[in-house]
């Protein structure tokens, strides 16, 4: 077997934990966020079990409140935000632009350590008793009233934020300075465009979260009146600051997914992506407009009517680039040569679920409708369609698509297709009933609920069981294929892109010679034409 | 069928609810249309253009730029339409002008206290007359709560340190649930109650029968005297303090040069946090009553100050403030 990044510098402890190789750091992230995903998933499973019956009989209210806080904090900051950028982005960005590594390899390793330090503090706060504020840390509950380990968990989140900033800076510098000769901006794969947009948000928004958490700590520890009106503060100030970060953060949690889907669909349609520039600019405009819509989380907060109207309007505007993307992906399929391999099933599932998530986002942007469904299960269903139906589907699709490149092995295709379908069905059964629950008026974060909501809750819990089974499949067959799977060729999907021109898995230094790019991305017609002329010549 | 209506179609108990549902179902129709269209297109492509099929694949001669512009502008126009519709309903729902019937609500971990101007007071229940515009004036004693009336399609966060208002007109007699929708701690999911919408005559009967209390304004008047407010806030006082008759709803010039409307929040702050906003032309002499009055008492004082009008005619006005200084301000023990 050829030497690869997996073997070249040995398998010792130091070779992994002091590595500066972006590919190895990606593996460190892959393993860490999988563990966080499992922790967050167990919390979700306990919540769904509790909600199978209307009475709060499985766990106490305090435990339930800690469970949803744990689920939210871990899934948002320790799984979703780092998922595609830090695993697939770390691994692929240098490969896609023909570079040896990211611009700042040491900063990249530091970002993982900072991330793990924040993560461990957060887990520690859970072990010693948990936090019951919800992942949103609303004041003055979090700053004055909550009787739990708010400061410790907030510190964990605060620290992990630096990891986001490091990664964002690293990606921006890399994309600007390290592209291969000939790789102009419009020859970049769309995945790189989406990472670029994501990085802008990471760098600009995360500091606001840090400031906000520091202010909460100042009030909680020092009694400085910032958010609690009893000591002269303003509770809405917190919401403005928090959503100024957290709404753009929603786009951190979906833009990279757009990028992955934009790679998979042309490959399994054997066609150039439709509307390349529109998709690229849509990512950038989402990143920019995403900063201007935070107030749509506050339509019933006693924010002024005028502010409500402005934020509602801007929220509709940010939906336009998302719609453009969906239309372009769909058009890409037209007159293609479509194969339903596992990554493609995930990508098509993504389009479906993201469309439903996006359309229900319009309901929430509509002022009078939001007043009714705000803080109900309708919202819960909506953002899970975006973040789980969208981002997790894209993440799994990407993991399968690049698995041969990352590990040098093929995953079992039939099992992959089957689990993608199970996840799609389980997901819909879990979250679709929650739209109905929300419209019927079931508020979120309820430990016990009135009996008329039970039927739909049972459906949702049943769906969650199927979804969990679906997630366990790849968790079993992917690691197994790493050791026993058939060896992967250099380019198993006959895909375009620089990452497919080198060995699977790549060597430590990625490229033997610096590649040059002289063509647009996704030129599948040319690729297939060359391939067929080669097969004609061979006999 | 009953199961279906109960679990798919929520109860509508106000005209606003019907209008919101109409908008909701229209949005739903548009969304279902888009989902069906996309599902059809994707399924069609997957089947017809499956790898190796004999379908014709000669590239189409279409202007892709025109296509892109079409599917940018078209959704944009639809979005603007929906936005305008939703905003219109939102503005109509937010008629913050005083309504004919006012009920005060005080939220605290984890219960709702309802106070009627006539003096009745109850917990986790809200009695309302049918067909009359209602204004709820709400504040919280601790964290943020949110009053959520699904049957009215209405929701409003209830904040500490601030009075917020929620207006609607129930048009169906019956009992409907309300919830706390903003997470507020351990027993958040137990912070629920019932709205009981009654025929006007039943409501009047309910308001008076079993009511042991004086009207809310009278309770406030009593406090006004007990706390010595009248010592300064009367025309002949040696202390230069603003007169409160008719002050409610006025535009007050502040020391800082700004103007503020003397609404419930302003009156509350003036009692509890008097240094926050100083009325122009007055010395900051008012002491804080933060340690002496709770939100519930402040609520009564607000209602009393609102009832202090220069002109007669309001239902609360049998209670004119007694001449200050005289201890007989409270006829009741």
Automatic annotation (TrEMBL), chain A:
The keyword Protein transport does not apply. It catalyses: 4 Fe(II)-[cytochrome c] + O2 + 8 H(+)(in) = 4 Fe(III)-[cytochrome c] + 2 H2O + 4 H(+)(out). Belongs to the heme-copper respiratory oxidase family. Its main location: membrane. Pfam families: COX1. It comes from the Bacteria. Residues 16-518 form the Cytochrome oxidase subunit I profile domain. It is an enzyme of class 7 (translocase). Cytochrome c oxidase is the component of the respiratory chain that catalyzes the reduction of oxygen to water. Subunits 1-3 form the functional core of the enzyme complex. CO I is the catalytic subunit of the enzyme. Electrons originating in cytochrome c are transferred via the copper A center of subunit 2 and heme A of subunit 1 to the bimetallic center formed by heme A3 and copper B. This is Cytochrome c oxidase subunit 1. It is a multi-pass membrane protein. It is found in: Cell membrane; Membrane. It comes from Luteolibacter pohnpeiensis. The keyword Transit peptide does not apply. One of its GO terms (cellular component) is plasma membrane. GO terms for molecular function: cytochrome-c oxidase activity; heme binding; metal ion binding. Keywords: Cell membrane, Copper, Electron transport, Heme, Iron, Membrane, Metal-binding, Respiratory chain, Translocase, Transmembrane, Transmembrane helix, Transport. The lineage of its organism: Bacteria, Pseudomonadati, Verrucomicrobiota, Verrucomicrobiia, Verrucomicrobiales. The chain crosses the membrane at residues 26-47, 67-88, 109-131, 151-172, 193-218, 242-262, 274-294, 306-324, 345-369, 381-403, 415-436, 456-478. GO terms for biological process: aerobic respiration; electron transport coupled proton transport; respiratory electron transport chain. Pathway: Energy metabolism; oxidative phosphorylation. SUPFAM superfamilies: Cytochrome c oxidase subunit I-like. Its EC number is 7.1.1.9. InterPro entries: Cyt_c_oxase-like_su1_dom (IPR023616), Cyt_c_oxase-like_su1_sf (IPR036927), Cyt_C_Oxase_1 (IPR000883), Cyt_c_Oxase_su1_BS (IPR023615), Cyt_c_oxidase_su1_bac (IPR014241).
TrEMBL record, chain B:
Gene3D superfamilies: 1.10.287.90, Cupredoxins - blue copper proteins (2.60.40.420), Cytochrome c-like domain (1.10.760.10). It holds the Pfam family COX2_TM. GO terms for cellular component: plasma membrane. Residues 313-333 are annotated as: Disordered. Residues 98-209 form the Cytochrome oxidase subunit II copper A binding domain. Keywords: Copper, Electron transport, Heme, Iron, Membrane, Metal-binding, Respiratory chain, Translocase, Transmembrane, Transmembrane helix, Transport. Its main location: membrane. GO terms for molecular function: copper ion binding; cytochrome-c oxidase activity; heme binding; oxidoreductase activity. Residues 215-309 form the Cytochrome c domain. The keyword DNA-binding does not apply. The keyword Secreted does not apply. It is found in: Cell membrane; Membrane. InterPro entries: CcO_II, CcO_II-like_C, Copper_CuA, Cupredoxin, Cyt_c-like_dom, Cyt_c-like_dom_sf, Cyt_c_oxidase_su2, Cyt_c_oxidase_su2_TM_dom. Binds a copper A center. The chain crosses the membrane at residues 23-47, 68-91. Its EC number is 7.1.1.9. Residues 1-97 form the Cytochrome oxidase subunit II transmembrane region profile domain. It comes from the Bacteria. One of its GO terms (biological process) is ATP synthesis coupled electron transport. Subunits I and II form the functional core of the enzyme complex. Electrons originating in cytochrome c are transferred via heme a and Cu(A) to the binuclear center formed by heme a3 and Cu(B). This is Cytochrome c oxidase subunit 2.
